[in-house]
Amino acid sequence: MLISFEDFQANLSEVKGQIEAACRAAGRDPSSVQLLPVTKNHPVDVARYAWEAGLRAVGENRVQEALGKMGDVDPELRWELIGPLQSNKAKKVAESFHRVQTVERAKIAKALDRYAGEAGRCLSVLLQVNAGRDPAKSGVELEEAPALLEAALGCPNLRVDGLMTIAPLSDDPEVARRTFASLRECRDSLSDSFGVELAELSMGMSGDMKEAISEGSTMVRVGTALYGQRNYAG
Ligand SMILES: *Cc1c(COP(=O)(O)O)cnc(C)c1O
After folding, report:
1. What HAMAP family does the annotation carry (predicted)?
2. How many domains does the chain have?
3. Less CB within 10 Å around the terminal CB: N or C of the chain?
């Protein structure tokens, strides 16, 4: 069931080609968009594939699953949390992950800050914003984003690198595009009012990379297009 390295390489060059085409269409430099392979629900082998192919970070959405894999890959591989985080896992996460993309409450920011400090680390975070106003999606509401940013900027052991969003499920690509445009506008407005860069816009997945890149994504999080369906047990 595990995808072969050769098939992964073929998928990877396909995905890279799509990213380049989307960048060309948007008049952007392809090096301004990072590809984050999403290894969740796959065996650890696929994180090794990413490393072998020269990618240096992977995304996981469950804390426990990621912790179980970390020891089995080159220790230089960076792990980014892209799934929901409960405070009872904040200590482990602050000690082990390189970035948390899903900070959506001040309470979580403060917990991560405390544990990162205790571990003597500075943890990179993104604020997850519900830019598509989707009741089914996590993330801080657009109106609450300034208060969350203020709280996060008050955390000395966190570095707020930008924002992340997940577009609502829809057959209409315009829904995703509008969501991504809202995230960019939210970032621009926060950046102005707080005088911080917030350079990272983590948006776009296998199905909506093109829309995300045309709206300014700096990081696409791609699982299925690289590794195939994840409906089997690792
Ligand atoms: C699973 C997941 C992805 C990857 O989705 P694909 O459609 O498989 O590319 C991206 N972002 C988040 C937050 C995810 O949970």
Report:
1. PLP_homeostasis
2. 1
3. N
Structure-block tokens of residue 96: 């082990």
Indicate whether 120 belongs to any domain.
yes
Residue to mutate, 100, 102, 221, 232, ligand 1, most ligand atoms under 8 Å from C-beta: 221
Q: Any idea how long the chain is?
A: 234
Domain that holds residue 136: 5-227
How far is residue 27's CA from residue 4's CA, in Å, rounded to a whole number?
34
On whether residue 232 sits in a domain, the answer given is: no
**Structural tokens at position 230:** 């994840």
**What is the pLDDT averaged over residues 61-82?**
97
Q: What are the pocket residues of ligand 1 if the criterion is a CB atom closer than 6 Å to any ligand atom?
A: 38, 40, 61, 82-83, 166, 205-207, 221-225
Going by CA atoms, what residue is nearest to atom 10 of ligand 1?
221
Q: What is the pTM of this model?
A: 0.97
Q: pLDDT tens, 93-140?
A: 999 999 999 999 999 999 999 999 999 999 999 999 999 999 988 999
Mutation choice for ligand 1 from 3, 35, 38, 42, CB with most ligand atoms inside 8 A: 38
Residue 19 lies in a domain: yes
Structure confidence at residue 168 (pLDDT): 96
Instruction: Give the pLDDT confidence score for residue 234 in this predicted structure.
Output: 41
Burial (CB count within 10 angstroms: exposed 0-12, middle 13-18, buried 19+), residue 114? middle
Contact 168/175 with Cβ under 8 angstroms? yes
